[in-house]
Design a protein that fits this description.
The protein has 211 residues and is α+β, with helices and mostly antiparallel strands. It has helices spanning 13-21, 29-32, 52-60, 66-78; strands at residues 2-5, 86-88, 93-97, 120-125, 135-137, 147-148, 155-159, 166-168, 177-186.
């Protein structure tokens, strides 16, 4: 796991997300957004990404500069990390971790859900993300020594979600965690196939899931 910072003025992800939710404080999205909904515990992998927050994000984000910023971020910040050609998740995953709830339904390894063991994960919090509001992850495969991925807006965490088991705790704070995350794959490890993503059944191929 490696955490580093980026310039939020050059890559203002949080500001673009604030625009679509018309909310100045994303940590208050669960009550500050006019269409907010309090859900029962989202502990089912078939529904944890099917909320009004996710629908609103994906339906409206194209009307902002978000994707232009995201693609520039990949080119300027992410590609230089790798020593070979990469492909990356075309549409990053949006997360909202509301008070008294989960952002993902269960502890898992991404390779258990159609993902390659060679993928590299990047976690980009848009709010303070700590303790019960963030991801908990084991230090290496099978360790089970979970610790919180504490980070804030302006931080990015590079980590091995494909092989390290991870998940959420119930958020016991009164703030929401809002974040995006995405995966990168060395092009040499890409294999064309019929696998689809778990959340929205996107084909795990170039031009669909990958770019």
């Amino acid at each position: 796991m490696n955490k580093f910072s980026y310039d939020i003025k050059l890559y203002p992800f949080a500001e673009e997300v604030k625009k679509i939710f018309e909310n100045k404080d994303l940590s208050e999205i669960h009550k500050g957004w006019s269409k907010s909904v309090s859900y029962d515990l989202l502990d089912d992998v078939s529904t944890d990404q099917n909320t009004v927050y996710h629908k609103h994000f994906y339906d409206n984000i194209r009307d902002t500069e978000f994707y232009f910023i995201f693609n520039s971020f990949i080119d300027d910040v992410i590609r230089p990390i790798f020593k070979e050609k990469i492909i990356y998740q075309r549409i990053p995953t949006f997360r909202v971790h509301q008070p008294n709830n989960l952002a993902v339904a269960e502890y898992h390894r991404d390779k258990d859900y159609s993902h390659s063991e060679h993928e590299v994960n990047f976690f980009v919090p848009l709010t303070n993300s700590y303790d019960t509001t963030t991801i908990w992850v084991e230090s290496s495969y099978g360790k089970g020594d979970y610790s919180p991925m504490n980070a804030k807006n302006g931080d990015i965490v590079m980590w091995d979600g494909a092989n390290c088991r991870h998940g959420n705790k119930i958020n016991i704070t009164d703030k929401s965690r809002v974040s995006i995350d995405f995966r990168v794959l060395p092009f040499s490890k890409y294999v064309d196939g019929d696998l689809v993503s778990t959340s929205n059944k996107t084909k795990m191929t170039l031009g669909e899931y990958w770019k």
